[in-house]
Amino acid sequence: MPSRSARMTTAALLSAVVLAACGSPASPSETVEAYLQALVNKDEVAAANLSCAEWEGQARAEALSFDAVEVRLDQVDCTSAETSENAAVVQCTGRILANYGAEDQVIDLSVRSYRTVREGGAWLMCGYQ
Fold it and tell me: pTM of the entire structure?
């Protein structure tokens, strides 16, 4: 039978693996892509969780703005354009397609730059530049 310290070490390693799997996206571009996915999923909680403290309210509002429409991402690809230790600007290509019944609206993602910051060790969406 393993010693108590061996069991504790194993439990700690398993906890670290589980937390890492559930953690925040690893890069600024992954954060923005996850944020955009949360918006089209109409998931205000996920959008807020992917946002810096000052952007949380806006993230909820953006997710709720798609509540009454059919919406999806199309050919999204994001890359970090400028990166420092605690901030990055992300550029995306692709679009959000929103269907308002008889009318389709195309939202071109390349017309904005997305600001991200590192808070609490995680990259978070923090507005537009």
Answer: 0.79
